[in-house]
Amino acid sequence: MIHFKNIVFKYNSFISICGMHFESYALNCFAVLLYKGLLDVIYCIYIAGSHTFFSLDISIINTVNGWLAVFIMIPFINLYYKQKTCSAIIMIAINMIYFIPITTYCGYGGGSSSFLFFAFIYWVILSILQIKLPIIGYKTRVDYIKVSNKIIYVLIILVSLFSLYIWWKYSGFRIHLDILNVYGIRSEAADNPLPLILSYTWHIVTILVPILIILMLHNKKYLTLIWLLFIMVINFSYAGNKSIILFPIILIGGYAFYRGNMISLIFPIGIVIEILAVIEEKLGSIFIISYLFRRQSMVLAQLSEQYYRFFLENPTDIFRNSIMGKFGFDSVYNNTLARVIGENYQNQTVNCNNGLLADVWSGLGVIGIIVMPIIVILCLRLLDFVSYKIDLRMMVGLVLYYAIMFTNTTWSTVLLTHGFIVLCLMLIIFPRKTYKLDGTGVTV
Question: Sign (positive/negative) of CA torsion 320, 321, 323, 327?
Fold first, then answer.
């Protein structure tokens, strides 16, 4: 036990020292530029020409402008380090997995100069809003925590009962633990869809379970934690969605390893992953390159440009394919926009989901360059408000998940289907720094 405590102490000291050093402008500048340079190398050598739909098409003007854009990003990233909020982590992650890959794709993958220009304008507006729009928080009284705990256990009971019902009714008490062999289960779930109300409840439950898991871990309620892990397993056994298993793992990993100064180490960690990806490729495997840098970076950049090109020549949907469709507005397209893009550019029937810049061109057109950053930042400010004074170790996995969601799908789908609003409601009852009132009503 003492040996374990020594390891934890050394880890905390190491992270604290490294985090403090990388908060300096010079090291931050070096880390961001090195990340960009290694990403360029990975694309040119290991992705272009080796993966379907990606080729090497060098544009000198886009390459130069891309590097200038990254130079301009650096001061903003340095300011995010000082904010140390949930929205700051999301902005850093979006820069890593979305905007910097766009500069690489436009420089070496055939992306157009006009797309790069509009992407940069969008990024500038988004970044200025993140820095200038005030972050508002609220304090929680000590006696409110007792009420919150009661609500949490009521939620655990309701979530458990619902999951057990679905497990019995739709999967016959089946237990499935093979995360690599899930397509049969998914097909079975698709062939026997839940009624509409149960379907919406199911989506909410799959978001609530990981959140409740991290709460029980934080509160050291280990028996309840084990029960919730069992609920996670039976939910996976019904639907076969890998995210049901991976999401809680990410949250637990974030809680175990994240420390206060670690926000400034996000880019250095990204560099380590890039180096590991190259080493892995030399050893004969391309999992990291294919899944992280191709699927979660370059594919997002490519799809964003394909949305841009498509809606330059076709009618803007004005969100009728998503949130406005719920209010009776019919889309001009007979299929989902993700399928429309797939059929036009990928030459196959496939869902090409995308967020951020895709929302601009599909939803509003050029005016979206101004409107959509405002919508995104308002969502992030809501997250900052409800997460005020919550331990970032509890939040880091959640915010990284939603950074990925905002880049992968339309904003309204993130809020509703992917549970962003549910998360914000749950965060209201999360444990956080509290205060007491004396007899005269003064904070003590």
Answer: positive
Residues 230, 390, 78: CA angle, nearest 5 degrees:
115
Enumerate the β-bridge partners of residue 208. none
For 254-280, the pLDDT digits (tens) are: 999 998 788 999 999 999 999 999 999
Q: Report, in this order, helix, strand and coil percent for the chain, each rounded to 5.
A: 75, 0, 25
pLDDT in tens, 397-439: 999 999 999 999 899 989 988 889 999 998 988 887 654 544 4
Which residues, 6+ apart, have CB-to-CB distance to 210 below 8 Å?
232, 247, 248, 251
Amino acid in position 205: V
The structure tokens listed for 390 are 């919550």
Nearest Cα to Cα of residue 273 among 38, 32, 11, 68: 38
Q: Which residues pair with 437 in a beta bridge?
A: 443
The torsion region of residue 430 among left (phi > 0), alpha (psi -120 to 50) and beta comes to beta
Fill in the amino acid letter for 156. Answer: I
Q: List C-alpha distances in Å: 326 to 109, 339, 412.
A: 37, 19, 11
Those residues whose C-beta lies under 8 Å from the C-beta of residue 412, and which sit 6 or more positions away, are 319, 322, 323
- Rounded to an integer, what is the distance from CA 306 to the centroid of its chain? 21
443 Cβ contact partners less than 8 Å away, ≥ 6 residues apart? 139, 435, 436, 437
Strand residues in 153-223 grouped as ranges (E):
none
Looking from the CA of 278 toward its CB, the CA atoms found within 13 Å total 13
Q: Which residue do the tokens 């498509």 mark?
A: 310
Which residue, chain included where needed, has tokens 């797309």? 115
Distance CA 59, CA 103 (A): 11
Identify the residue whose tokens are 């544009």. 59
